[in-house]
């Protein structure tokens, strides 16, 4: 299984970015997908999740209303649309995959993409 995240970069506060994560080596539609982030000096934290099958979504309180997770099963890709970005959103963002409907931990992880939000 490989998860390839992309779309990170430098953006000013208030701006937007869209992250993508393309999966290979698995039947994408049968996996719940998640986004996590790790800021400098902090532990990795949950950001958003979209379940397999019905596409239920869940967000961390810190991003709810600003970020949107979606998936395109035909393209084996999960997206994270990030709007109204804040400096505290600066982190390495990771995508993850798991076969369970609502996992509390994930089996597979991507390599991460860096998002830097300047004030």
Q: What features would you describe in this structure?
A:
With 119 residues, this protein is an all-beta fold. Strands 2, 4, 5, 6, 9, 10 and 11 form a seven-stranded mixed sheet that branches. Strands 1-3-8-7 form a four-stranded antiparallel sheet, with no helix packed on it. It has no helices and eleven strands. The N and C termini lie far apart (37 Å).
What's the short version?
This protein is mostly beta strands and 119 residues long.
- Helix amount: under 10%
Radius of gyration: 13 Å
Please count the beta strands (DSSP E, at least 2 residues each).
Answer: 11
Q: What is the SS-derived class?
A: mainly beta
SS strand fraction: over 45%
Order of helices and strands: EEEEEEEEEEE
């Amino acid at each position: 299984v490989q998860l390839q995240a992309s779309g990170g970069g430098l953006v000013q506060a208030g701006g937007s970015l869209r992250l993508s994560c393309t999966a290979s080596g698995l039947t994408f539609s049968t996996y719940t997908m998640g986004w996590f982030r790790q800021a400098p000096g902090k532990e990795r934290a949950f950001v958003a999740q979209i379940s397999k099958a019905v596409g239920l979504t869940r967000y961390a309180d810190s991003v709810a209303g600003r970020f949107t997770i979606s998936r395109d099963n035909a393209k084996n890709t999960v997206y994270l649309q990030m709007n109204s970005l804040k400096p505290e959103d600066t982190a390495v963002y990771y995508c993850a995959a798991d076969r369970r409907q609502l996992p509390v931990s994930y089996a597979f992880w991507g390599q991460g993409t860096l998002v830097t939000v300047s004030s």
